Amino acid sequence: MSFHAMNRRTFLQTATTVTAASFLTSRFAWAAGDHKIEKVGVQLYTIRDEMKADFDGSLAKVAAIGYKEVEFAGYFGRTPQQVRAALEKNGLTSPACHLDYDLLAPGQWPAQIESAKVIGQDYIVNPWIPEQLRQTDDDWKRVAETFNRAGAESKKAGIQFAYHNHWFEFLPVNGKLPYDMLLTLCDKDLVKMEMDLCWITVGGGDPLKYFDRYPGRFPLVHVKDVKKIPRVTTGGEQNFGDTVDLAAVGSGIIDWKRIFAQSDKAGIKHYIVEHDKPAHPFASITESYEYLSKLRW
């Protein structure tokens, strides 16, 4: 069609299409940099000594920094009712807690589920498997069985069970990666993953590959940084913060935009700052919060 043959209707249709395309292009370009973390959380293990010395005062400081969510690793003698009251006083919520592996035992687990319900938590996370219980393939199979059983029981109470990794899950055991074994052997609805984005990096894994293979399995992530990749082993003494050069979020080598751009695929709902051994805990979580609260992707 020549230009002269183009009637008004055709021109308007063409112009509208071009305008819409231009708008959508600019809209998506804008949206690509408009994603942010709505509620930045913090794992209170980072300030464990401060929590022990001043439970209520530490929560107040966390809230004053700007954090909205906290993940507990112990309650320092407080009852679930006292913990909930302290959270409400400071305008905080606790979506999750960390519990030792032995508390998953049938005689211990129901009380932990009830405690989480009182506090208002949606997730209970096991953050560590004792070294003697993860030596062989059969050991990891037993762990998966324990996780499935615990997850089934918590699910009945409306609470999701999850597992938090370190680095050793990404180092082969008899030619297999323990993390892969857990994702395969654990029921995807009963056992979710709280991926520690620093430790998977230290272990040589790539979060995005797991997001692609297991979409929606990672509702929580630990967000911490590292200055350089250290040498790690499957077991033995690992001095977090000593042999591993951890850093406040944004001051290390991890590409956060690359990872968070896949948040929807991963199923991430909670972004939780952690540093295992900061020299100055409150300064560390302040620096991490300031970086993440301004981050756009």
Automatic annotation (TrEMBL):
Record-linked Gene3D superfamilies: Divalent-metal-dependent TIM barrel enzymes
Alphabetized UniProt keyword annotations: Isomerase, Signal
UniProt xrefs under InterPro entries: IolE/XylAMocC-like, TAT_signal, Xyl_isomerase-like_sf, Xyl_isomerase-like_TIM-brl
Domain Xylose isomerase-like TIM barrel, residue spans: 59-293
SUPFAM superfamilies: Xylose isomerase-like (SSF51658)
Listed GO MF terms: isomerase activity
Signal peptide positions (record): 1-31
This protein's name: Xylose isomerase domain protein TIM barrel
Organism: Candidatus Sulfotelmatobacter kueseliae
